[in-house]
Write a structure and sequence with these properties.
With 768 residues, this protein is mainly beta. Helices cover 15% and strands 39% of the residues. The two termini are 48 Å apart.
């Protein structure tokens, strides 16, 4: 096996100690090159690795890369391979067949929902090579008054040609720039070359094969860690810098020399049993330092929780020297025990801040925030994460920010991430390591100095369109607000020239239409932050189920139409994502009885990624190959499909006894709670993606004594609905899980927009 960087998959280079020199050079990594270009904070990075198999037998090569969490992969290619996206088992079977026969073959490995990891393995035929090229883009975030480019490199073997190159162009001018790496020795430091002018900087690092060695007589490499570039730009004393390229603008807002606002902060500390030992010790040590760093005009509180909630004091205290001393004594007494009631712990903190505001005991124009530290999932009190999110969002009501720190790996980080973003905050994972105390302190320092509250950036509607988010809850010291949009034709000269420093970056130093790509990046990133609380299903009969976890309820409706009808289920014009479904009927229908229809075929389209995915009852395959899609076929006949940065869904195959006189195999379609689409999404189920408000009243006896009827008020209509049950097959494909729902009669009339016929399309891949 060969492994090549920037990051090797498992480090299993040979059946020997990788530090010991060996004369066997039958397989080697010829080159690893990382080329990063930055224009106005927008980074475009290309990673290229080439491996050669000089042996007379085939060998397997692994290519695995760790990327910044905020980066989007925009391209990936293998020069010796053209693949097809197939069912996982079939792909693995063909791959192993090619490996055994010595041919060149590749298999992309799934990496789950973690966008920061990309992996692929390929079998290289004898005396042949392969080149991998991966491209990703990201908007550099300003933290602590600087931008950071971090490139993780772990080739785990010596590389004949290794090179890192970075070029930065900033029209505002470069204020300072530093380059470092976690693996630099005194011998490697001189190999880092920097050339810096007013607006441009060039960095390079290219050690020879001998300079990479850990020692003269070993094959171990020194190149193992992070290559880091930090810099900042010059800032004028106005209220922002606007850059325009090809009809798109980007506005960078980070005013200098603003006075710091006082803050009101409640620390909510998990003291459940899993925090016992090192984690609690590190938390206590970090809190002691953080309390010392509070400013005297700040107000603070301490809340601890397991299955019960306790307070240092019932109300906020000013950060006086005496109060800080007493709080630190309390922190020393916190002991880990019992269960985890996150819901009650956070709600009590919200109540503490809300009460202080009502009593006018806080300074005017001060920033209120909650900092939650937990290492686990809710195991006491309210344990439904959707309900917790709803409870907290309703309690906070946009009046304060919530920041979530997740300690370790044994927690639902996605839950904390949504919880924070729904309340104008952010989440951060604290890794269990010796520097956990520094991680905790570092996070606090990011939010320790608020400068502005409720920042609204206004742009004239006659001049701009397609704006990204222009309202921000707060601006912290050392950070930056970025807004992008499109300029209307002929309006460039009228674009706020008198107020803001208008810049037109020099074309020769930028990469293509970077402002448009930056706008698209921000648009998608902000869509990713808007997580829906709905689970939408298309399965069985009735076909449609809209599960609403926040209300612990669901709506369902059927479609009565001829077999073969194609319905548009989801259509998002902004992301280009479309799902259409074609119905099938029973094998035969007895005279006088009602025939049932199910979905027997789905067509999934993603225009942005140029994907056409067909799902049939006997096979699931992709018409076009695409590396933006991840497929996983489980043993229980369910297919999980993840389209990068867009949506994740499950298709389930329901098998029916082949000799059944009436029924036949059919499919179910489920969107998962992690999928993200725009506000423009529509379709038979897409229209419910961003929520549905309804009220049910006046229960009365219906035709079925076990299924009461009621009156539902929804979308301005009053409907008679029936209480029933439907099965959710996501967790148990064979038997399903019973879901109670309100059944809307007459093809969902009154619930869906328009008429059922409005959703009929002519083709399975119809995208408009």
């Amino acid at each position: 096996r060969l492994s090549l960087g920037p990051l090797a998959a498992d480090g299993k280079l040979h059946e020997r100690d990788s530090n010991q020199r060996s004369p066997d050079h039958s397989g080697s990594t010829l080159s690893v090159k990382i080329d990063c270009k930055v224009a106005s904070r927008f980074a475009h990075t290309v990673m290229t690795s080439t491996a050669l198999n000089k042996a007379n037998v085939s060998q397997e090569v692994f290519f695995e890369v760790e990327l910044p969490k905020t980066a989007f992969i925009t391209n990936f290619s293998m020069s010796t391979y053209v693949g097809e996206i197939k069912e996982k088992e079939k792909a693995k079977e063909q791959y192993e067949k090619a490996v055994s026969s010595g041919q060149t073959a590749g298999l992309v490995k799934a990496s789950g929902r973690k966008m920061e990891k990309f992996a692929v393995s390929v079998n290289i035929a004898a005396n042949s090579g392969v080149t991998f090229t991966l491209t990703y883009e990201e908007l550099l975030q300003r933290r602590f008054g600087k931008y950071e480019i971090m490139i993780r490199v772990k080739p785990k073997q010596l590389v004949q040609h290794f090179e890192i190159v970075a070029d930065i162009y900033e029209p505002q001018g470069i204020a300072f720039l530093n380059t470092n790496a976690t693996f630099l020795t005194n011998e490697l430091i001189p190999l880092v070359k920097e050339t810096i002018t007013d607006k441009m900087a060039h960095m390079s690092f290219s050690p020879t094969l001998e300079q990479q060695r850990k020692c003269p007589d070993c094959d171990g490499t020194l190149i193992d860690g992070d290559f880091i570039i930090t810099y900042d730009v010059n800032r004028a004393e106005d209220i922002g810098d606007v850059q325009i390229v090809n009809g798109y603008f980007v506005h960078f807002f980070a005013p200098a020399d603003l006075p710091r606002l006082s803050k009101n902060v409640v620390f909510v500390i998990d003291r459940s049993g899993s925090m016992h030992g090192k984690k609690m010790e590190q938390t206590q040590e970090a809190l002691a330092t953080i309390l010392d760093d509070l400013y005297q005009e700040d107000y603070f509180g301490l809340v601890t929780f397991d299955n019960t909630v306790e307070f240092w004091r019932q109300s906020l205290s000013q950060a006086s020297e005496e109060n800080i001393k007493e709080a630190k004594k309390f922190v020393e007494t916190i002991k880990a025990r019992h269960m985890t009631d996150i819901n009650e712990g956070v709600l009590q903190a919200v109540d503490m801040l809300t009460t202080a505001k009502k009593n006018s005991s806080l300074p005017d124009n001060s920033a209120s925030m909650i900092i939650l530290l937990t290492d686990g999932e809710p195991t006491s009190g309210e344990q439904n994460v959707s309900m917790i999110q709803e409870n907290v969002r309703n309690a906070i009501g946009g009046n304060m920010s919530l920041f979530c720190l997740g300690f370790g790996y044994d927690l639902d980080y996605a839950f904390l991430d949504v919880l924070a973003k729904q309340n104008e905050g952010l989440a951060r994972r604290i890794y269990e390591a010796s520097d956990a105390v520094l991680q905790l302190q570092g996070f606090y320092e990011e939010v320790a100095s608020p400068l502005l509250l409720e920042v609204n950036l206004h742009y004239p509607g006659s001049v701009v369109n397609s704006l990204t988010n222009s309202h921000f809850r707060q601006l912290f010291n050392g950070t930056e607000i970025v807004v992008a949009g499109q300029l209307n034709e002929l309006e460039v000269d009228n674009f706020l020239v008198e107020e803001w420093a208008l810049m037109f970056p020099e074309q020769e130093y930028i990469f293509g239409d970077f402002t448009e790509r930056l706008w698209a990046y921000l648009t998608i990133q902000q869509l990713l932050d808007k997580r829906s609380a709905l689970h939408l299903m298309v399965d069985g009969d009735p076909h449609f189920i809209i599960e609403i976890p926040n209300l612990n309820d669901a709506l369902c409706f059927n479609t009565d139409d001829q077999p073969g009808t194609i319905f548009n289920l989801v259509r998002d014009p902004l992301t280009g994502f479309v799902v259409n479904g074609q119905t099938i009927g029973d094998k035969k229908v007895e005279p006088g009885s009602k025939g049932h229809t199910y979905f027997g075929r789905f067509g999934i389209v993603h225009e942005t990624f140029d994907i056409r995915l067909t799902s049939l009852r006997n096979t699931i395959f992709s018409i076009l190959p695409c590396y933006s899609m991840e497929l996983h076929v489980s043993k229980d006949r369910s297919l999980t499909v993840t389209l990068k940065n867009s949506v994740k869904f499950v298709i389930i195959l329901h098998k029916v006894w082949k000799k059944h006189p009436y029924h036949q195999d059919y499919l179910g379609f489920y969107t998962l709670d992690s999928h993200l689409l725009s506000q423009s999404v529509h379709g038979l189920i897409g229209q419910f993606f961003h929520g549905i408000k309804f009220e049910v009243s006046d229960l009365f006896q219906g035709k079925d004594p076990e299924k009461p009827d009621a009156t539902m008020s929804v979308k301005g209509n009053r409907l008679t609905v029936t209480r029933g049950w439907q099965r959710d097959f996501r967790k148990d494909v064979k038997n399903g899980e019973t879901v109670p729902c309100w059944f809307i009669h007459n093809n969902g009339t009154g619930l869906i927009d328009g008429d059922l016929r409005d959703y009929v399309v002519s083709e399975l891949f119809k995208s408009i």
